[in-house]
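ligand=flavin mononucleotide
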Amino acid sequence: MTISGCLTKCLKPCRWAFRRIARIPIVQVLWRTAFDRRLLRRTAFIRRKPTRENAVAGVVLAYHVIEKGLTMPNRRLNFGHAAVFNLANACERFLRDFGEAPQVSHGIAVLRAYAAIHDHEARMADPDFWKTFEATLARLPDVPPAVEPQFTREAFYAANQAPFADFARSRHTVRHYAGPLSIERIRAAAHLAFETAPSACNRQHVRLRCICDATLREKILGIQGGSRGFGHLADKVLIVSADLDDTLDIKEHNDVYVEGGIFLMNLCYALHYHKIAHCVLVWFCNPANDAALRALISAIKETEAVVALLACGEAAETFSVAASPRRPFDEVYAEI
Ligand SMILES: Cc1cc2nc3c(=O)[nH]c(=O)nc-3n(C[C@H](O)[C@H](O)[C@H](O)COP(=O)(O)O)c2cc1C
């Protein structure tokens, strides 16, 4: 017998044992999550080596904070100095390391819009601060100030029953709410979203809870943390979750987020159709936040993964939305 034949014969029982072990659920969990971790280890934030892609994300995040601030109800002057400083720095670093990019131009445009709402008197409140980012503004002098679109409620919903392309283009995140919102309209939008969202094998993993109680809402938004300046105006908060018990194999462990994401977008369209102003709120699934939310809402099953929250309300009579310009199409689309 050859050496390789001998080895094959000896290893046969081992292969059989390996296969049996690999089928043990907990081993599958360890193997699959190790695969997830390997993917995570490649990211710029873990390797601490900023890539251009990661730097773009940093600039967008930094300008979005200010862009949101510019559209806030009851906006005050000189808001968010630390965030403005952060944006100016992110733009400076990007220009130094990678050169120009549409996202940096928009970052500068947002800084310029911020500067434009502050006259000489407003700047005198903190002259040192104002000096810090004027140098950044001077780097791209031809970029005009960003414009955050303004709407009346009527104009905003003029296309809510239009053909899809116009309807989809008319939906924007709204953070300025006024007055109560009837539960019947929420229910109608939720019904439409559930009726029409696809799901893997139609297993419908998603659950939706509408928080009507004001005290509970306040506590939940406090945990979420991303609705400062507007969350208190929301008349309802929705919680989108998906049940891992509707998955049948470890292979599907990320499906809850795919299912939740598909449903979430469908729900946004359904809310827009029913003229309900809304803002998706990210759910950072860290253990402390997760436990705090579950302590407040015992109906969330142990096997459910919380996917996102939504702040909802009746749109104010007039309001602004963040411009949120999209990446150039060629950056995100390829034919291979
Ligand atoms: C997953 C997700 C999480 C979000 N989290 C927040 C949030 O915590 N706070 C907030 O004000 N907006 C949040 N948003 C709203 C985005 O900022 C907004 O959708 C984006 O700028 C695009 O604007 P548009 O909805 O008007 O097209 C979130 C959106 C998504 C999709």
